[in-house]
UniProtKB/TrEMBL annotation:
Enzyme Commission (EC) number: 3.1.1.24
SUPFAM superfamilies linked to this entry: alpha/beta-Hydrolases
This protein's name: 3-oxoadipate enol-lactonase
AB hydrolase-1 domain span: 1-211
Top-level taxon in the UniProt lineage: Bacteria
Organism of this sequence: Ornithinimicrobium faecis
Hydrolase in keyword set: yes
Length: 226
């Protein structure tokens, strides 16, 4: 997911990417899981790598992990970048219904609908092969891993954490993101004390993929600024 940014970030930083539990090449532990479990995973990874303090960049569920990490473990987070995410995503039934659907039929049955919210209609029309590769990625995600993370979002409300985030924070929204619209992102920027909001035009939920130059430049600027 971060392929478009990694080379530019690696010019400045040691870059570590990881798959959230239940996704990609990470294990699918028994649930139920909570946002604190996802934070425990991030802290365990930092500990394993001997990293005391890091910048954290997260999109969607990764951003939720970043918010909770920065609020719960303020000494471990230097700067924070939150992309296309929210402190809560009600109603919970959207997520518990989705969990039930994938447990019943696998992630393949939702792949097309999910990815249709990740990119604008314009990109979907121009790059069907790219869209197909993201649909394949969703369809390859273990059903239990995906469902367990849907339940994390269903249960999660980080609204009370926002004022205690000390990290300087970039809040980056996709202008056309139906999942985390700019109004939701503006609320994050309003309640996190040292936050700046950037709305990226012509992008939906995966703004970093659809507008890679704009997002990479914003991240490098945010993470390297004095
Ligand atoms: O895939 C989606 O439906 C969009 C989304 C919102 C939060 C999240 O983790 O994914």
């Amino acid at each position: 997911m971060w392929d478009p940014q990694v080379a530019a970030l690696a010019e400045h930083f040691r870059v570590v990417r990881y798959d959230t539990r239940g996704h990609g090449r990470s294990p699918v532990p028994d649930g139920p899981h909570s946002i604190d479990d996802l934070v425990d995973d991030a802290v365990a990874l930092l500990d394993r790598l001997g990293v005391e303090r890091a910048h954290f960049v997260g999109l969607s569920l990764g951003g939720m992990t970043g918010m909770r990490l920065a609020a719960r473990e303020p000494d471990r987070v230097d700067r924070l970048a939150l992309l296309c995410t929210g402190a809560a995503m009600p109603p919970a039934s959207n997520w518990t219904d989705r969990a039930a659907t994938v447990r019943g039929g696998g992630t393949g049955v939702i792949a097309q609908a999910v990815v249709s919210r990740w990119f604008t209609e314009s990109l979907r029309g121009q790059s069907p092969d790219r869209i197909a590769s993201f649909e394949a990625m969703v369809a390859a995600t273990p059903a239990e891993g995906y469902a367990g993370c849907c339940e994390v979002i269903a249960e999660m409300d980080l609204t009370g954490d926002l004022p205690s985030i000390r990290a300087r924070t970039l809040v980056l929204a996709g202008e056309d993101d139906p999942a985390a619209p700019p109004s939701m992102m503006a609320a994050l920027a309003e309640h996190i004390p040292d936050a700046e909001l950037l709305v990226v035009p012509q992008s939906a939920h995966l703004a970093n993929v659809e507008q890679p130059e704009t997002v990479t430049e914003a991240l490098v600027q945010h993470l390297t600024a004095d």
